[in-house]
# Entry
Amino acid sequence: MENPKEIVAKSALRYITSGDVVGLGTGTTASEFIKALGASPLSKEVTCVPTSLETESLAKRLGLNLVSLNSVERIDITVDGADEVDNNKNLLKGGGGALTREKIVAHYSKRYVIVITEEKLVENLGSRMPIPIEVLPFSYVQIIRELNQMGLSCQLRKNFTTDNGNYIIDCKPNQKVLKGSLQDLNKAIKLLPGVVETGIFINFNPEILYHKNGQVLEIK
Ligand code: 5RP
# Structure
């Protein structure tokens, strides 16, 4: 029996066409997509941009053609997972710590497909999972102090360094922040010096594929 992540990830293959430059996401669901792409006849007809070193090594093992973001003019389509998706198709990402490269690749992608299982659909981002924030190690203690003052309860992710050599701070929003404006929250966090990126993905216009009871459903 296939697992739900595998089912939904495989279903994204139908969006890939020969000649595409494909952005490859990070995480267990994105890995299922990468494995399916690697096993398909399209594997020799696409070029891929990985969003993490982990994804790069998986894709290499599967024989996919890899290039850097800087060497392509465009990304036709990116397929990635997410930790949470709200009713407005805002995403929370970064459970695997690859949020910065994932956000950059998403920004340069014409089409952005998110593959998730049903429990990741939420009313408010930050309700199931903390909000991950990538920061420079130089000032992480100061940043945690400031984030705590903004109504976030923050912890340094232990024994973890991102592919960019930075730290991740995981932040649980209090009720007021949880119900407040995501745009304002994201802006306020990004204004702190030393913050590299947040796991809040707003306005990326993703197509959401989600697994529910053995079926793949779509939020366009
Ligand atoms: C990694 C991510 C992942 O897409 C997210 O954590 C979902 O992972 P999984 O598919 O393993 O549940 O943002 O930085």
